[in-house]
Amino acid sequence: MTGSRVTNRRARRATGFTLIEVLLVLIILVIIGSLAVNVFTGTQDKASINAAKSNIPLVRTAIDMYRLDMNKYPTKLADLWEQPSDTSASDKWAGPYMEELKADPWGNEYQYTAEGKKNANKYDFWSNGPDGQSGSEDDIGNWE
């Protein structure tokens, strides 16, 4: 019986994990997790950029319809969904031309100017892009 007791004690000790084995598994999991975060972060950025780009033709259509009715570009984006208080302009207005425009995918307001700087003799409509700063390289607008 003494021989079987010694064997049982050795078997019990061999069934657990050593600290090095546990740390090795944790390190591997951290490496895999960091790789996954990098992959999914790039996917989210691309999806946000594509969402901003998809709003440009929708707003462009509404602005063009407004221009056909009013013979001018709107002075502000809200003119596309709010009826003008001026009665002479109110008679021509056939809107709303679109629903109220929500924030861009980064939570910032879309930008609009009736006298376009990037589109001469037209208007500029854009999102400030991921950095939220107007005039930077990541702006997404109707000039692209």
TrEMBL record:
GO cellular component, one term: plasma membrane
GO biological process per UniProt: protein secretion by the type II secretion system
Gene3D superfamilies registered for this protein in UniProt: Glycoprotein, Type 4 Pilin
Chief localisation class: membrane
Type II secretion system protein GspG C-terminal domain ranges (all copies): 41-143
Signal peptide (from-to): none
Superkingdom of source: Bacteria
Pfam families attached to this UniProt entry: N_methyl (PF07963), T2SSG (PF08334)
Intracellular or extracellular location(s): Cell inner membrane
Disordered: annotated span: 121-144
Keywords associated with the record: Cell inner membrane, Cell membrane, Membrane, Methylation, Transmembrane, Transmembrane helix
Family statement: Belongs to the GSP G family.
The protein's name: Type II secretion system core protein G
Organism: Lacipirellula limnantheis
This protein's encoding gene: epsG
